Amino acid sequence: MILVQTYVIAALGVAAFHFAHLPLPFLLGPIFACLIAALCGVNLKGNASVNNAMRAILGVAVGATLTWSVVLAMPGLWPTLLMVPVVILLAGLIGVPYFQRLWGFDFPTSYYSAMPGGLQDMLIFGEEAGGDVRALSLIHATRVMMIVVALPFLLQLAWDVDLSNPPGAPASGMELSQMLLMVFAGFAGWQGAKYIGLFGASILGPMILAGFLSIIGLLQHRPPAEAIWAAQFFIGMTVGTKYVGVTGHEVRRDVAAALGYCVILIVLAAVFTEIAILFELAPPLEALLAFAPGGQAEMAVLALIAGADVAFVVTHHIFRILTVIIGAPLASRIWAPTPRD
């Protein structure tokens, strides 16, 4: 019953955004509707299996954009890829003192709150280090939500990007063989990546397998528009439901701290976007989406809808998350304050 209630509230959000002519109704509508309902005390929940399936759709959509020309061009991405660890380092140098001194969080919570990695990874690492898991969850959920909400409006205002175009061809105009191949790539890629323990298996596995099928010429289309809309809906709903049970104290401290940190991250992203543009390392739209510290799935959605170079954007976010996963635990041990006798 709670799950059905959540779906209804998310659907009302889609309808409200659609009738108000606001951008990305299938993504932002569920985020806002579920967020408001959660803050009002309504009990909501998502479906982890369905959400992973939606991430698999995005993985297939990203992989289907790969061609030999895109693969051959990837070595040319190294200048902007090398900027990613610098962004992460600056985020840590600014973010840890921000959370620790200004908001009073302990070091483990401050450190893993400052790292712009995946939500689940930061919760696991933070818990192992003795951090406040609830605070980490709210801070990272707020980071993802704010970046995802702010970017569409920024894209429309700054660059007049049309976000109303369908994200793909309709299912009715697609061959059944292509649809079955997409299902195979999504399921087999997801389960195969999960079996070998690949991080982000539900999106990276399908992306790798779909990319291979696309490069050899078997997969010739992205998933249909209806599938991308469904992915937006469930991912948006999941972001909003993370605020269920939030208390007034948590809003005043955890969420407020996260909102302030989002401003810092947005400024950092803007600075590095400008550097990439000035040195002609990347087009403006791709640079902004590549350096924006949102969730991997959410950034893939925005790249698809905005008509950006999806491979460029997603490669940078994979590298960001991989850098944080590998570097964060090591850096945390080095950086951690030495206990006094």
Report on the architecture of this protein.
This protein has 341 residues and is mainly α. The chain has helices at 2-19, 25-39, 48-63, 68-73, 78-81, 83-102, 107-114, 119-128, 133-159, 176-196, 201-215, 225-241, 248-278, 284-291, 296-306, 310-335. The relative contact order is 0.18. The model has no long low-confidence stretch (mean pLDDT 91).
Basic shape: globular
Per DSSP, the total helix count is: 16
Helix coverage percent of residues? over 70%
Poorly predicted runs: none
Q: How would you spell out the order of helices and strands?
A: HHHHHHHHHHHHHHHH
Topology, number of strands:
0
Task: Profile the largest sheet.
Answer: none
Class derived from helix and strand content:
mainly alpha
Radius of gyration: 20 Å
Mean pLDDT: 91
N- to C-terminal distance: 54 Å
The fraction of residues assigned to DSSP E strands is under 5%
Short note summarizing the structure:
The protein is mainly α. The chain has 16 helices and no strands.
Layout of secondary structure:
Blueprint: H1 2-19, H2 25-39, H3 48-63, H4 68-73, H5 78-81, H6 83-102, H7 107-114, H8 119-128, H9 133-159, H10 176-196, H11 201-215, H12 225-241, H13 248-278, H14 284-291, H15 296-306, H16 310-335
